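User: what does the whole thing look like in 3D?
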Amino acid sequence: MEIGESPPLIVLLIDSDAERARIVEAGLRGAAITKLASSDSGNILSSISELQPDVIIMDCESPDRDTIENLRIVARENPKPIVMFVEDGDGSLAKEAVRAGVSAYIVDGLTSSRIQPVIEVAIERFKMFDGLQRELEKSKEDLEARKTIERAKGILMDKRGISESEAFSSMRKLAMQESITIKQVADKILSVASLLGDNF
Amino acid sequence: MSSALEMTDIRIGFVPLADAAPIIMAKERGVFEKFGLNVTLEKVSSWARMRDLLAVGDLQAAHMLAPMVIASVMGLEPGTPPFTTSLALNMNGNAITVSNALYAAMYQANPSAMKERPITGMALRDVVAARITSGQKPLTFAMVYPFSSHNYQLRYWLAAAGLHPDRDVNLVVVPPPKVMDYMRAGIIDGYCVGEPWNSEAIVQGVGTTLVTSHELMGLAPEKVLGVCQSWADDNPNSYSAILSALLETSKTLENKSALEEAASIMSVNAYVGLPAKRILPALTGTRRQTAGDIIQNMPDFNVFYRYGANYPWRSHASWFLTQMYRWGQVNKAVNFKDVIEKAYRPDIFREVAKRGEHIYPTIDMKNEGDQIHPWVLSDASSPIALGPNQSIDNRIFRHAHPIAYLEGFQIHNLRLSLSELAQKNRLG
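Assistant: Here's the predicted 3D structure for the full assembly of 628 residues, as structure tokens:
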């Protein structure tokens, strides 16, 4: 795959080192939309939700690492490849980066010309790794989702006095209207039922 | 015993929080040197980074969230070798703080619930229900790491009021020094973090503390000293020397003037980087704000040594494991005993304590949440005075029955059947 094909990649750069950020931006010029979020201030969660980046590039010493890692655990449906800067003495930190599930790493001696190839590799490796992970998780999650949907359906049938197929089609309709999954609709129904009780 | 140290140059990582005090003071007061060690401290900016530096051997020991050790043994931290701990650094020290706007909304929604002490999540539940009815977006709460006491404490408090933490609110991870920026910007509505980041919200006028972890779950385990199991096996004497130095330092932190000195030393940028007078209340519990408008002295807000605070109770590890299951962080059945015996090594603690003439428990497990008054633990080298430990919903964790404890929770996110888990945990 090649960066530069449309649409352009959206890259979120989380780094407080201005010089390094400049090199990355230069390396991606014309090939990607880059947004820089300084590690020192600003909040990464808003940057991610506004930008929906294809790749996140970050400093391994950034205090935002825990935030990013948790997003990858929670947002299992939509994880992002991450490229991490590592200042490296003996090579062990590069191993560390890979072990931490980082798709690629850039050791020091960063030049603009290396940015694009590294990002390409990161995305490719991420796709491979993510594909495997998803297969492992999918069957278990499908089962869990089915259970939630069944419970929500039961609540609707009970509270509204409707049939099973009516309950399901009203959930499906809501999912389409709000462009969310049926599982998410089911979650909402469970929330409403448990918090509003008889006022539901 | 004066066996030769296998390794004398030791690097220990700490996160800039009040409860790094024992590590920082052991270094500053030359206690590590007294035990023959040349220790370098490294300030680490995230728990993920701490985990990785320890895993690759850049650090020999780490200020660590207790559940991270258990997660590493369970293989839940990808690629990380198993860690272990033989020393807890403190008990308590966290709190749940909400934005001033949310505090006002809670008060308006349910003034009588807000007058209960400790404050439960009942008023929050009313706010969440009203937001659902009016179609507003869910409230967002922050904690520090998925495998953290903060995560489990926040979830426990929410669930005790009938709120499902994965469904009724949105949970995110935010590094503690940034929680205030996030709250000011309206990205989060509340958080559960350690100190000084609850007090800071009050000082800066950003938020209001609802409940301290001590009120939520008395004498709750907090940070530990984590090491790689393989390193501990290969370097038993150096490991003991680190533990001895930290235990000795922790004992001195029972003294008010030592805590004042600690606050002053930790105020420099290389450590916490906040004025000493804003760190000190986190260490002493004096003039602690809780339940919104209450200011009180809470001497057990953070505990470094008394009550056998440094003992790595395997029942604490077992409780953390129940919460990992409860919230769906694990979907594979394991034998609790296998995991906690690797993760927590009270046998090593006892050896170190004996040599340093500290008192120590002689049992590995105790029940949690069953004491409403100060009490005395007699299963110890000499009796140990302990404090009350009840939880906000008065639930008791009986260490011999972790699965029965799990069965008692109506709100959960279990990702396996408890009978499967029970099967793995049958005796014999």
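In plain terms: Residues 94-216 of chain B form a domain with the D-Maltodextrin-Binding Protein; domain 2 fold (CATH 3.40.190.10). The CA atoms of residues 367 and 398 of chain B lie 5 Å apart.
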